[in-house]
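Put briefly, the fold is written as integer tokens. One such record reads:
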Amino acid sequence: EKQVFQLRAHMYQARSLFAADSSGLSDPFARVFFISQSQCTEVLNETLCPTWDQLLVFDNVELYGEAHEMRDDPPIIVIEIYDQDTVGKADFMGRTFAKPVVKMSDEHYCPPRFPPQLEYYQIYRGNSTAGDLLAAFELLQVPAGQSHPRPREG
């Protein structure tokens, strides 16, 4: 059974990134991958603790399966951190994984689950830690026949 969702990635900040440039700093941005879509935050120059404070919205995310399975075991979100270079391609700095908090269309958007709290996710590069990402992810079911999820007040 096909379900349509909207993913909201609240990308707040990262900390303790490693220095990718000779200056001892980096020009980091994050790329968020979910199912077949990806989006990037803006690039912040010369920092190891970027505060993006950016909301990435993925519309028309189609998932197949039972509604209760989606809620209990949603797909994994992959977040990769890169250093933007002035020449050449961006350098990979690390990766982390997250699971979104899921709201089905018949549930209320209200505490304690919504809005989701920011959480720290450990960033890894190979087997070593490469900083932390502070973010929140929510996956909202779009009611049949609608183009966007409706916020339902409790």
Helices lie at 67-72. The chain is about 5% helix and 50% strand. The chain has one domain: 2-141. Residues 27 and 45 are 4 Å apart (CA to CA).
